[in-house]
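Note to self: the last two entries modelled the partners one at a time, which told us nothing about the interface. This time every component goes in together.
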Amino acid sequence: MTESFTPPPAAGCRDTPVLKERGQREVFCGLTGIIWLHRKMQDAFFLVVGSRTCAHLLQSAAGVMIFAEPRFGTAILEEGDLAGLADAQEELEREVERLLDRRPDIRQLFLVGSCPSEVIKLDLSRAAERLTQRHAPRVRVLNYSGSGIETTFTEGEDACLASMVPVLPETDRRQLMLVGALPDVVEDQALDLLEKLGVGPVTVLPAARASDQVAVGPNTVVALTQPFLGETLSALERRGARHLAAPFPFGEEGTTAWLRAVAQEFGVSEERFEEVTAAPRARARRAVAQAAETLNRRSLFFFPDSQLEIPLARFLTRECGMEAVEVGAPYINKQVVAPDLDLLAEGPVISEGQDVDLQLDRCRAARPDLTVCGLGLANPLEAEGLTTKWAIELVFTPVHFYEQAGDLAGLFSRPIRRHDLLKLEAAE
Amino acid sequence: MKLSVWTYEGPPHVGAMRVATGMTDLHYVLHAPQGDTYADLLFTMIERRDHRPPVTYTTFQARDLGSDTADLFKTACEDAYARFQPQAMIVGASCTAELIQDDPGGMAETMGMPIPIVPLELPSYQRKENFGCDETFFQLVKALARPVEKTEAITANLIGPTALGFRHRDDITEVTRHLEEMGVGVNVVGPMGATPEDLTRLGAAHFNVLMYPETAESAARWMERELGLPFTKTVPIGVGATRDFLEEVSGITGLPVRTDESRLRLPWYSASVDSTYLTGKRVFLFGDGTHVAAAARIARDEMGFEVVGLGCYNREQARNIRRVAKDYGVEATITDDYLEVEAAIEAAAPEMILGTQMERHIGKRLGIPCAVISAPVHVQDFPARYAPQMGFEGANVIFDTWVHPLVMGLEEHLLHMFREDFEFHDEAGPSHHAAHAPAPRPAEPAHEGGAAPRPAAPDSPRDISTQEEGPAAAGGIEIVWRPAAEKELKKIPFFVRGKAKRNTEAFARERGVAEIDVDTLYEAKAHYAR
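The predicted structure of the combined assembly is written out below.
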């Protein structure tokens, strides 16, 4: 049944010693999660309590989007707020009051902690409770931290979703819960596949609106669609839900393995599974094959960014024929990525954390054919003659499940094709 | 606390980064939490630099907050020195590090580094990016510049250009060329392109050209006092300003003004009959103080526009901008609140906005053409081509840039004459910008019968700002447009319709007229005609 796949490696990377580094980390903080979360959650507003730096980060990261109905803002701390904390609480309540008056469409308000607010220990959870009391039932106010000192990039989404779990209603219903903010089109495809398999009922966290009923309880089975959701998973487990371990749904193999785990849990017959997945699997294979021609036998180096690195390295090595040199992740949650590590053949350095200068030394020494890194490193590495794929795009493009498998491979082949296409050096 | 969706300036440590990144052989050790490295991509992406900014961040995390953040900083300093071997270092804190009070400056001084270490005090909760630039450059100059023997030939320093500066790269080239034409050499350009060693030779120049007061005025004043270097007060943006600047240089050096005007095209372009329709175009100006003051003069004296509003976001320039505004008979908008700027623009109802990246979006929302004259700017305003703002070529660039967003002359006439064309109509915008046509204006109150409140657009960011809009809010009387007058109003071309509507309503209110008919409209038109 899995004849099309590369056979699983004799020894995967599950027990490979992880290179743990501390030093300068060239990563985003968790506030950046707001950029995609506010588009996903239609009636939520994200109010960062932080400094001008936080506001500057958001607008630099959000680019043009900030003008198209931004449902986020920054309450910038000023001198006065640092002097007296009691005042800061009042100030915050006043700002929220003004905001909610003007935005009657808001049903969920997230007070998002930042480095400054965490360091001065501004008690946002108490503020959230008080504000919930005041604005119930119209608006629910929650809080989480997206600070750089606690969260890295996608962990902001984890912290946000985890903050919602304790207030979800209780249910005994046997159900599948998909966790992770996916692009709408991808979410629809996933739900469609699950429906065809006869798996249901299915709920999705986060839902598009606060009014969409998402409940949790002891008969809830959780399938993560993103690898960076460890905290949310723990919070759901505390509510009695059970984790369904699976590789992440990237590429044909990843999607099939992910779906198979769900299918087995819900007693779907092998015939039905084949019937539903055969056509999309063939399609995905064909789509990946085109990009794989470019990627085959090329070496690959991942700088840490989003925790998507391990599942994507698995996809690129197994389905596109690439050879991983180093797979760096900001944080490795073994419970969550073990199935992917099992499928990743031994060989690459698996690193967690970062000392960017040392990692750059390793990268330059290896001279990989493709380096996946952030925008702070991409152009400098290109100028050194290394081809790069900037990592943020992987979070801002539909990449999950069968129909996006070809696009996902294409994201990695494009810089290499471009490099081969441009004849600039010859022209000089 | 202050609610903000857009900030015109970053925090002051970004200003310090702009100085460090502009220079070479200078390294910046910044005590900052994990995540603050986002600022690198301002330089690697927006400015497309091909190397990493010379900044080492300590990137501390929550688990470091116990006691060892100070050690972390020391290690970062030592590693940075060992790896990069800079001629000098600057050290400082970001907003979060400011709170934990590790005193980077004090620590660095005790480390016995063999190079000059310049500590920076940048109050993140009071000041902003431009202050950060100015203060950092000032501290560097103060630490490094010493009285030295003057160059034999007459030379000047160009001070102020930094990394991430709006057109700084090409302004340097243009100003250098103008100085060369007068026989003045360039001693040091800084911060952009200078090494710390270069800064020690600043005193060898005969005077300073202060290109951007925002980023180097403190250093210019210090050098005037301590090294006896006079500095130029005129920023050569625009034809008149460039000529004044050359006069000023002549006054300082005793050299006669010599310049090659053959490459200057703005005066002829602006005088040519095709530009007649630019006369009295109502423009609103916003940006940093220097660029706004320069643009106001060009707009009025060199393009024949009418300045209907102006302002700046950097309070350091507030006094100057208020003086300029007075000269132009308008109220200065001094604010860093984007929503206030939007309100001011809406109230002034200009035909064109000259502003920053943010004003572009205000213009887009209001359907008003816009050109960018000042930072903050995005990647498209760090162009590959030569595109200075200063000097004669800068004037040429400015003419093209400002005229481009406007509907061209003949098109404007045709719009005025025939209104019913199905593809060539008001809302279509200038026909040479098909892809960027301004969004259709939101339904104007007039369409719905006078002072009806504008329907709430719940998702529009404008909601965060002013609630009361429309004529009813301003005066006591409820003004109603009669259908015929409303129809007549629509016949006025869209770029002046807002103004016509406001004028008519003001006219009616003054006379206590509650209902506007066609006659009122034309009475008002005659009243305001000049």
